Amino acid sequence: MFEFVTARELYDLILGDLHAQKDHLEYVEMEGWVRTNRNNGSIGFIELNDGTYFRNVQIVYTKEETQNFDEYASLNTGDAINIMGSLKITEGGKQPFEIVASSLKLLAKCAEDYPLQKKRHSFEFLREIAHLRPKANTFAAVFRVRSALAMAIHEFFQNQGFVYVHGPIITSNDAEGAGETFTVTTRTDGDYEKDFFAKKASLTVSAQLHAEAYAQAFRDVYTFGPTFRAEKSNTVRHAAEFWMIEPEMAFADLEDDMLLIEDMVKYCIDYVLENCEEEMNFLNTMIDKELIARLQKVSGSEFAKMTYTEAIEKLKEAVANKHPFENSDIFWGMDLNSEHEKYLCEQVVNGPLFIIDYPKELKSFYMKLNPDNKTVAACDLLVPHIGELVGGSQREENYDKLVARMNELHMNQKGLEWYLDLRRFGGVKSAGFGLGFERMVMYLTGMQNIRDVIPFPRTVKNCLF
Ligand code: 4AD
Ligand code: MG
By residue range, what is the domain housing residue 208? Predict the structure, then answer.
């Protein structure tokens, strides 16, 4: 009797208990795709990947024992097959086991112009075949890490009783006020009054305002959904469509917020190191040799903290010491450029760094004004190689102050009455943050381009597939 097995099951069983296994699994059946196939005329090896596990399963066929040797030998990279054979534990070898083939069925042929041949391809090229790249090792690793990370995030929040809220994807507000929304319309004339919603609607840039409403009922909530920004920034860290996690906690301040951020980042690191061992080892070998050591260090150390004002001082010192910034015109009130952020977390602290208390002019209308009347209770978490990973803040819970700030910014209250209402109907202080999911995937995998950590990336002038 042949028992159908997956690669994950085999590796789990055999790596788990080599000897117990030998006795009760002898004949197995698998299906998957040929990664490589080579033979020397008398013995051949197929590396089969069935998608369930990062590692391949080695299939052996021999002239002596296999009747249709030539049929096996003619299989090409990419062909889908069904294979039956006997399981052989190979102690001491590179592979912990192999399958000695006894029967083969070709399920689907792969055309000869299949672009994913054995040689290494550039990430640029692989982006052009985003529909095939999950079959390449790097992407097999990255996208399984991405999946595990989503689980880690849900677990982290659910374990602490946070309620998962689904914010709307179509909305009539621009939460961040940065004017980077994509309009949702069924018209070509821009006459939004006659449009589907009888007003201008757009894709969400942040679910925060909606999350705040739910935090005032459930105390601790989080959202985790697609987010859209028509940012013209054509960088390796910006996508027009990305996923964001936005927790919101009622009765919480900025300190509570930063504790949560730090806990979450560490939880995600530990989770991925534990649950994606093969993938992380591969990434550590092929993408970034310091990846695992760096993540382990971050997981075991306390995150550094400095105020925006201190950060400006550090940057001025760096300029005085001739650090070669492209922009060395450093002054209080400036928006930090990514080279400045990089310098601060990579050179000054060499690890994750919270920058807090930014000038109010640099941040969104909803942030709580500090007693100095100049800065707001905001925090950005910067990490080496990525830059900004998280942006968070305590919210202005005082109705009058919030209205005053909106007036200062010439913001229209229309459409945001409900948000102001939250302050009138028992609204307590609250704090939250936004984690860019793709940036977290980059941080955990060592990948350097956001286009390589989201299955089908959407960026400026690019909407393929
Ligand atoms: O700093 P941001 O704009 O903060 C907010 O949207 C707040 N409403 C969050 C909150 O307090 N609830 O965005 C949060 C994070 C950034 O730190 C970054 O990691 C990511 O979202 N992000 C992007 N990721 C990829 N592509 C883009 N275009 C991104 N814009 C922001
Ligand atoms: Mg931000």
Answer: 127-452
